[in-house]
Amino acid sequence: xxxxxxxxxxxxxxxxxxxxxxxxxxxxxxxxxxxxxxxxxxxxxxxxxxxxxxxxxxxxxxxxxxxxxxxxxxxxxxxxxxxxxxxxxxxxxxxxxxxxxxxxxxxxxxxxxxxxxxxxxxxxxxxxxxxxxxxxxxxxxxxxxxxxxxxxxxxxxxxxxxxxxxxxxxxxxxxxxxxxxxxxxxxxxxxxxxxxxxxxxxxxxxxxxxxxxxxxxxxxxxxxxxxxxxxxxxxxxxxxxxxxxxxxxxxxxxxxxxxxxxxxxxxxxxxxxxxxxxxxxxxxxxxxxxxxxxxxxxxxxxxxxxxxxxxxxxxxxxxxxxxxxxxxxxxxxxxxxxxxxxxxxxxxxxxxxxxxxxxxxxxxxxxxxxxxxxxxxxxxxx
Length: 382
Prior knowledge:
By secondary structure, the protein is an alpha/beta fold. Helices cover 53% and strands 11% of the residues. The chain is built from 14 helices and ten strands. The longest helix is centred in the first third of the chain and has 35 residues, at 3-37. The model is unreliable at 171-192 (pLDDT under 50).
């Protein structure tokens, strides 16, 4: 398996998927905005470890918008503890909510949500959801990457409809945010207030633009960092061969990506620990010592010479990530960092042994390209 081959599979699937789904996604953004406007919430769920990471990820994006001008929207990620997702959905779901199911084994939970009047979305065919999106590939990693772009696009573009008074059912108040504050995000956004078809067309074009952006960024990430990924995979393989384990970490959406990294390596029989996984440990350290120590203290507890650490950061400047990388290096761990922007302090100061840089300042696209990078790392390790 080569990095070039991994990129080719993703490029073709990305173009096919979003060319066919751009128009439905625009309509779905409008329907979701209507639900949010009526007080509805997004309820995301999944059973497998990888699916649970996506449910957590989409909830983070809606609740904690990282782009100026976006409102926080209510979202809940159900991780399926105990396995009874349908039971959890039945306790929480209400008629104006939006239910989003990840994985092919969520049909029962989708059915419960639909019976309760939720707008239902799923990422597999024959799920019973009103809106089904089935990526055109059998590769589980590529499917997950396309789905991540899809829910990021929903999160970004649902806000367009809050910029246009008169387009949301039951909404008559003036827009909360001035369009000028976020117009740079939506190059087709103008002052039209009542022409739904025109706005839907603008959103459809934005979907295609964002899909093109991530396609180009994925190519940059995998092409420019091909030798870094190969070397990092060799170091990881050697670590596992010596009986070492992997630690993974990140903040926010990058924390859910760390969850996914660990899930993927565990699925391949590799020992891996998610340093974002235990809220008791995270909150104890944050409360008693400080947020900057939440990962480094765990590296002290779990790390041993010959182990490996994978750190994800969109900026490359997060203090708790930098402290963890420094502690890992002091303790003789192999350090691998996936960073965005210009690489930040992690690249500039040489804080990791292997640094994969995704050169963008747009956080959703960075995370999507980083997913391709760590999936490539998993496959190269073998």
